[in-house]
Structures are given as C-alpha cells and as structure tokens.
Design brief:
It is a single chain. The chain is of the alpha/beta class. Strand 7 and strand 8 form a beta hairpin. Strands 1-9-6-4-2-3 form a six-stranded parallel sheet, covered by helices on one side. A three-stranded mixed sheet has the order 5-8-7. It is 47% helix and 11% strand. Helix 3 crosses helix 4. The chain folds into two domains: 170 residues, Rossmann fold (3-Layer(aba) Sandwich), CATH 3.40.50.1970; 174 residues, Dehydroquinate synthase-like, alpha domain, CATH 1.20.1090. Bound molecules: nicotinamide-adenine-dinucleotide (NAD) and zinc ion. The site of zinc ion has 5 residues, from helix 5.
C-alpha cells in the first residue's frame, strides 16, 4: 500500500542561551490561569542550590515538588504525584515546569498528560493512546544527552514493561536551554548521558530506517559529539552549549527514525537490574563492535580519554529466569531491531546470540 508518513509535532517554543533560565518568570506568566498554580518539578539534587531554586518565580499557591532521579520514572510514581496534586489543588495547574535531567523531564511530561487524561499512567504506555491535550508543560534540562527535551515520548517503567508514552501531546510546549545549568554535573554522569546522545546518532545513522530528515540531524549531532569527546579542543563553556545542541539534534534524528541494539539491550538491563539509561547504554555499546564497528572503537577511545569506568560482569550472576526476562524485554522492542538489522532481524538476533552478548557485559 501507500506509505504513511508520520506527522510529527515539534516543540513550538525554545529559548537558548547562557543565563536564559532567568527569563522563566516572563516566559510562563501569560500561561497563568486564575487560582491554578504552577508546579515546578525539580531534581532534588538542587535542593541546596541557590542558583537554581532562588530563581524559581514562585507566586500565589505555586509549588515546588522535589523528585529524586536516583531511580528512573515509574508509572506508579506518576500516578501518586498526580493524585497528590489533585487532592491538594481544586484547579488543574496552569503549568508543570520540569527542571532536571531526562528522568525529571520525563516525569514532567507524564504528569502533565495524566492530569488531563483518566486512568493510570500504565494505560498509556505505547503509541498514540493519549486522547486529551496535556497541561501546559515546560522542560528545562540540567544535563545534556537524552533528547527528552525534544522527544515525543516519556519513558516509564510499569508493572509489565518499560515503554514510553508516545503521543502528539507528549512534547513540551516550551523548552529553555541554558547551558550554565549543566555546570555541576559530575564527570562520569556527564559522559554517560553524553554518550546516550552519541549512541542515538550511531543507531539512527546506521539503521535501515534512515532518511534525509534523520540523517541531517544525526550527522550534526554526531559531529558535535566528536568535537566534544574526541577532539576535545574547545573550552568547557563551548562544550556545554554544544552538547546541549547535540542532545537536541540527536533527539530530532531518532524522532524520524529509531534507535537500535544498544537501546534494546539497555532496556533489558534496566528492567531486570535497574541499570540507568546512560550507563546501561555504555555497558552495552562497549560490546557491540560486531554491529557498530568503528563507532565502538571511537567510543572506547573516548572512555579512555576521559578516564571513565564502564562496569563489567554485570550479567554474570543472573538467574536463568532473570536472563530470560532480560532477553524477553529486549526482543520485545521490535522496531528497534528492525531498524538495526532489517526485516530478517529475528534470524540474526536469536535468543542464544543475545544471551552470549549479555554474558559479555
Ligand atoms: P538523570 O535525569 O537520571 O540524572 C542523572 C544524574 O545526574 C542524577 O543523579 C541527577 O540528580 C544528576 N544531575 C542532573 N543534572 C545535574 C546537575 N546540573 N548538576 C548535578 N547533578 C545533576 O539522567 P539522564 O541521563 O539525563 O536521564 C536518564 C533518563 O532519561 C532515563 O530515565 C531515560 O529513560 C530517559 N530518557 C528519555 C528519553 C526521551 O526521549 N523521553 C530519551 C532518552 C532517555
Ligand atoms: Zn537513549
């Protein structure tokens, strides 16, 4: 039949620049509805940070909600936050503003969706299950790499699966990109989340779904990553700005294609062991030379250059049940495998091949 092309929503408003976070008050002001608060969902790592907290423009009954990023977002956690907001306030909030990394941005998107849609967050894991427009939501990343600031998904771990809420209502209404917010990121985490972006590009550029749209964004992000992590000749300040834009472009690239093997396998690790996304991708990608050749060689160079530790032997002590679950979760991500290996992926990536790969990690 006729091909069906995705009609892709984009973030309609974005501010970029060092110090642009200071404009938050004037940016959200026109969105305020009488009696309806703004809720700021903030990574609890900033609890003591004057730089971040003091600049939050609290007025009337606005609220700051600190959320930990120690564990990745869960559907149950979203339901609880939404329940609490509904019992605390008589009015649906004017807006939800997320300040943090991919975890906090995803919580923000999911909460804004669940405030206007009935049922539980787990009911919406999948594609295009959301029927009603979300509450106005703003994303302010404080670490660069996931692309969550531009993406059409919010990745959640639910009772039976780790899967995003992919919908036209998921993307932010407004994003504020202030590279200075990433100043305090610890080096290892900077690297892991930065590599999430690098891996988005590699998987998109080497996938069978590649097209000129994805390629143009993917190549730009890939080059920016090389400037930052391989050539390493620019100042820290330039790196912050460029990595923020690499994350953005990497997210745009996969929006119109897909990720691949590292992501599928990393989801398996995350589901069974709770391994976080950035580090999980690194653990997997480190062993994917057969599939992503030169880029894995380059990755290993970057690991060495920045003296990063990639955990080893993470799957050595898995029970048979755990290993099977990990394989089930990974193989369940059909579009990722199809993108990586083509229509015949099932004959290439058998359970045995996958198990052998996991055992190397
Ligand atoms: P994160 O949000 O989990 O944060 C990682 C760590 O860095 C946390 O300890 C956090 O407190 C800390 N941190 C963040 N900003 C900081 C700062 N400025 N100073 C000091 N510490 C800081 O990390 P992440 O890698 O950005 O996000 C991972 C999450 O993103 C996963 O849950 C993953 O599923 C999700 N993700 C979503 C998408 C999407 O399109 N929605 C894409 C990729 C990944
Ligand atoms: Zn990713």
């Amino acid at each position: 039949g006729k091909p069906v092309f995705k009609n892709f929503p984009m973030v309609p408003k974005v501010v970029f620049g060092k110090g642009s976070y200071e404009q938050l008050a004037e940016i959200i002001k026109p969105q305020r509805k009488s009696k309806a608060p703004f809720v700021f969902i903030v990574d609890d790592v900033f609890k003591e940070s004057n730089e971040v907290i003091d600049k939050i423009p609290l007025n009337f009954n606005d609220k700051i909600l600190y959320v930990s990023a120690d564990e990745e977002p869960k559907t149950k956690q979203i339901d609880e936050i939404v329940q609490n907001l509904k019992s605390e306030f008589n009015y649906t909030p004017s807006g939800i503003i997320g300040i943090g990394g991919g975890s906090i941005l995803d919580v923000t998107k999911a909460v804004s969706i669940m405030l206007t849609n009935p049922g539980n967050a787990r009911d919406y894991q999948g594609w295009d299950l959301v029927k009603k427009k979300a509450v106005y939501h703003v994303g302010i990343p404080t670490i660069s790499g996931t692309g969550s600031e531009v993406s059409r998904t919010t990745v959640l771990t639910g009772p039976t699966k780790k899967l995003g809420i992919n919908s036209d209502f998921t993307p932010f209404d407004q994003v504020i990109l202030d590279p200075d917010l990433t100043i305090g990121v610890p080096k290892d985490q900077w690297f892991y989340t930065g590599m999430d972006c690098f891996i988005h590009c590699v998987e998109s550029l080497n996938g069978t779904f590649l097209n000129a749209f994805s390629e143009s964004y993917g190549e730009k992000a890939y080059d920016l990553c090389k400037e930052i992590f391989v050539e390493n000749k620019i100042s820290e300040e330039e790196k912050r700005g460029k990595l923020m834009m690499a994350s953005w472009h990497g997210g745009m690239s996969i929006a119109y294609s897909q990720v691949g093997i590292a992501h599928a396998m990393s989801y398996g690790l995350s589901y069974v062991l709770g391994t976080k996304h950035g580090i999980g991708n690194c653990i997997v990608f480190n062993q994917l030379e057969k599939y992503y050749g030169e880029d894995v060689v380059l990755f290993k160079e970057m690991v060495e250059r920045f003296d990063i530790t990639i955990p080893k032997n993470v799957c050595g002590n898995l029970s048979e049940i755990q290993m099977n679950t990990m394989i089930d979760v990974a193989l369940g991500l059909v579009p990722l495998w199809e993108n990586a290996l083509g229509k015949d992926w099932e004959s290439i990536m058998t359970r045995d091949v996958l198990k052998a790969l996991y055992l190397k990690m």
